[in-house]
Every structure is written in structure tokens, then in C-alpha cells.
Amino acid sequence: MILRSITRHVRDQNWVAVGIDFFIVVIGVFIGIQVANWNEVRREDAAGRAYLERIQDDLAVDRSTLEDRGRFWNVVQNYGEDALGYLEEGALVEDSAWKTLLALYHATQVWGFFVYEPTYREMISAGDLGLIPDPELRRALGDYYGVSFDQKSFVFQLIPAYRDTVRGMTAWGTQNYIWSSCFEFTGLDQYRLLDCDSPMSEDQVQLQLEQFAARTEVVEQLRNWLRNLELMQIWREQMIEVSSDLDRSIDRSVDKVAGETAG
Fold first, then answer.
1. What angle, rounded to 10 degrees, do the helices at 172-181 and 97-106 form?
2. Predicted confidence (pLDDT) per residue in 205-233, tens digit
3. Are the CB atoms for 62 and 245 separated by under 8 Å?
4. Contact 108, 183 (CB under 8 A)
5. Domains of the chain, residue spans
6. Sign of the CA dihedral 14, 16, 21, 26?
């Protein structure tokens, strides 16, 4: 319609009307571009907020997982310290050879930790990291999912030499009994370490204990494993703190973008 109007005004040599028509066209194009840009910014803001909300959910998974791991590692550490008391000083756990052997075995348990990062990896793969407008938040997320965790992963996922040594020395029948009677599975990848009755006499258990005590690498490897368990607990607390800080930073970033959009 505007084209017919311009054509008619040109034919009539009504240059003022032609100028007005062109002005209307330019204004219309400008407004159209601005609306399109505004809609694109809104779309990107919404996509960025959705990513950040999902990252907050992932961080919550990490904190919950780390709490679970902390409780489990503490149990393993307690068993390890009981076992160390026997290996270093000959002190039986509650004066029981069986409980001492069980402590030696339960101290071999591991339960590694990996950060839960599907959303962050999706953003990287899609090239959408720029949807997070705050460069400091982008850097902090990169540290959490990259350098920071990489520095800790070798400990969080450690399979100690102590585990291989003790399991290699423990009689097969004893191991089968421990796994059938001294564990409680509570989920797909969760279990609890239990005390249980001995399947043999104290004298038979004592013979196995003496074999462990005679191997110096057992006590050396246990000391090293206990030190790593302490380090895992320290780093676990650090990661929970960093995750909580990131959660609050995301809230501030989302509030800031919402305020700027409203303004």
C-alpha cells in the first residue's frame, strides 16, 4: 500500500508527500529491526536464565552427592583408623579379632566423586556460553567445572594400593561372606558398611590378621590412604563452599539481568 502511495505522489510530483512516505518507510523499518533485536535479546536472556537455573540444579546435585560421600568417607576413615591401631600397636578392635579383620577390609572401600555437569557441557557444545552475560560468572563456572575439579579429581577418584593389597591377601571365602553379610545396598550406587557376626573362630581370624601384620606394605599403604581420605574431606568442604558461592552468584546475575531488562 505504501508503495502505491509513493508511486502516486511521484506521478503527481507531490514531493512533500513523497518525503513523508519515505520517512514512514524508514521509521517502519527501524522499528521492525528494533523489535526483532529486542525479541532476540529477550530470547537470549530467557535461554541464559534457563541454562543458569539448570546449572543451579546441577550444583545442588553436587552438594548432595558430596554430603553423601563425606559421610561414607568418614565411616571408611574410622574403620581405617581402627585397623591402623592393630597394625601399629597390636590393639584389637573391641578385643575382637573378627572386628579387626572387618575393619581392615571395610577400610578398602572407595566411592569416587565426579562433578555433575550435563548443563555446562551442553552450553559448551552448543556454543552458548556467551548467553551468560557476566564474564566473572563465566570464569567462575569454568574454574569449577574445569581447572578446580581437575586438580582434585586424582584424589576423589583414587583407587589406593592398600585396597589391592588387602583384598589380594584376604581369603576368598572371607571376602564372599563379607560381601553377602556385611553390606547393605540402599540404592543403585549406594551401600552401607555393616558390622556382622564372624563366620569362623577367633583363632582362625587371628591367623589371617597375623599375615597382614607381617606385611609392612599394608600399614604403609593404609597410612597413605588415610591421609588421602583426610584430603578428600578438606576438598569436599571446599567444593561445597564454592558451589554455594556459585549458586548465590547466579542469583545475583539473574536479578541484575532482570532489572536491566525491566529498565
1. 80
2. 999 999 999 999 999 999 999 999 999 99
3. no
4. no
5. 2-262
6. positive
